[in-house]
Amino acid sequence: MQLAAAALLLLLTSISPSPPLAAAKSTIEPCSNSATCPALVGYTLYTDLKVSEVASLFSVDPISLLLANSIDISLPDVENHILPSQLFLKVPVACACVDGIRKSAAVTYKTRPADTLASISAAVYAGIVSPDQIRDANPNADLSDPSVIAVGTPLAVPLPCTCFNNSDNNLPAVYMSYVVKDVDTLSGIAARYVTTVSDLMNVNALSTAEIKDGDILAIPLSACASNLPKYSSDYGLVVPNGSYAITAGHCVQCSCGPGSRTLYCQPAPLAVSCSSMQCRYSNLMIGNITAQPSSGGCNLTSCSYNGFVNGSIGSTLSTYLQPRCPGPQQFPTLIAPPTSLPDSYFAPAPSPSEAGGIPSTNPKSVVPSTGVAFGLPPAGGPAGSASGTSNARSLMDRVTAFPVALVLGLVAEFVLSTPL
Ligand SMILES: *[C@@H]1O[C@H](CO)[C@@H](O)[C@H](O)[C@H]1NC(C)=O
Ligand SMILES: *[C@@H]1O[C@H](CO)[C@@H](O)[C@H](O)[C@H]1NC(C)=O
Ligand SMILES: *[C@@H]1O[C@H](CO)[C@@H](O)[C@H](O)[C@H]1NC(C)=O
Ligand SMILES: *[C@@H]1O[C@H](CO)[C@@H](O)[C@H](O)[C@H]1NC(C)=O
Ligand SMILES: *[C@@H]1O[C@H](CO)[C@@H](O)[C@H](O)[C@H]1NC(C)=O
């Protein structure tokens, strides 16, 4: 009886139409160089999961995952903490360049009993990747019947990600791929992530502020950039405002904000053996700053982190004069590992004070016309911003629309150049 019910369920799930992905849009970034860049994927847990389980879904380090969400890592056994279903997390991913498009290259998923391509897409990865994208990324896996996948099949999961040179309006930024929910509005998202509607439209090459359930947006989060030497293994480290990153073999943690755009690194509170974090010719440790009021202002001496090179932690001692002595270093608030959803979770309506309006001085306030959608970078915006689609039909619309626009342009030019 139970077996029959299970078989029926299997049958029903296999013949029921796949989720309405047909009209979902996704922002893609063309790329040419092979360097990876830091990005985030916004993820909503489909069930209660351990920290380590979420981390393994995205092939990331659990400590990085926790710190990206400002969750305290100093508690014992924090990796086995169970996070509640529907919790939203920012997952740090290395954004690679695959076949000319930015996506994650390093994420693999081992299939479990009852997995189907549709369930892996919609449930496990919460809509961030479509069944077709998973299929296309695994040409050698037997996915001929997407409802029957051998248990333990390793599947590459090409998560959408963008970097746009890790800048937005010429300021450091980290981009988060975000699956739009039906309750979302562009202004709500802009307010929640301290950006503007026009910036979101520019970045995603949207011609209107309309967004749909299942669309995937790139959301720029303001960030602090590092200035580490090219030869260090963590060159290019960028940390979003309000969060932490761990580096140098779990020895150093760096944070951004709330009050400053300067990346601040200090020894991490983990019990791991680390090479010396003391600056040479000084008794200062990485993160130590001494301030001495002097006649010319404030004489600051700081020992700062300078990259992880060949397994050793680089540090730099510098002395400089500033008009005024700085206040104490501020840190993003660390939270305890969540055990339940925050009260206001289902209505992330921002307070009016933080509602992101459209400042008239915003250099990106020009709303892109549909013509921009084909890949002209918005003025002053991230280069190479382009709107793609996760399905063939609307991609075809774009492709066919392009020559039409070209022809219209030629006609216009012809008319203009015709002597009267
Ligand atoms: C990328 O950003 C850096 C500064 O963050 C800038 O110097 C460089 O010109 C930018 N490159 C492109 C291609 O926009
Ligand atoms: C950084 O985050 C803090 C809250 O943690 C917020 O008040 C501030 O506006 C943010 N700054 C930027 C530049 O986004
Ligand atoms: C220097 O940094 C270490 C490690 O973060 C800290 O324990 C110590 O209190 C700091 N010393 C001063 C003088 O700030
Ligand atoms: C600033 O402090 C450093 C070390 O304490 C000292 O060597 C330097 O002379 C000072 N500079 C000024 C302008 O006071
Ligand atoms: C790192 O080590 C390799 C050999 O072990 C050496 O060739 C290289 O110069 C080192 N890099 C730096 C920046 O010290």
Automatic annotation (TrEMBL):
Q: Which is one Pfam family of this protein?
A: LysM
Question: What SMART domains would the database entry show?
Answer: LysM
Where in the sequence is the signal peptide annotated?
Answer: 1-24
Which superkingdom, per the lineage?
A: Eukaryota
Q: Which PROSITE patterns match?
A: LYSM
Domain spans labelled LysM: 107-157, 176-219
Q: What SUPFAM superfamilies does this protein map onto?
A: LysM domain (SSF54106)
Name the keywords, alphabetized: Signal
Question: Which InterPro entries does this entry report, sorted A to Z?
Answer: LysM (IPR018392), LysM_dom_sf (IPR036779)
Q: Which PANTHER family match?
A: LYSM DOMAIN-CONTAINING GPI-ANCHORED PROTEIN 1, LYSM DOMAIN-CONTAINING GPI-ANCHORED PROTEIN 2
User: Can you name this protein?
Assistant: LysM domain-containing GPI-anchored protein 1
Report the source organism.
Salvia divinorum
At the highest ranks, the source species' classification is: Eukaryota, Viridiplantae, Streptophyta, Embryophyta, Tracheophyta
Q: Which gene encodes it?
A: LYM1
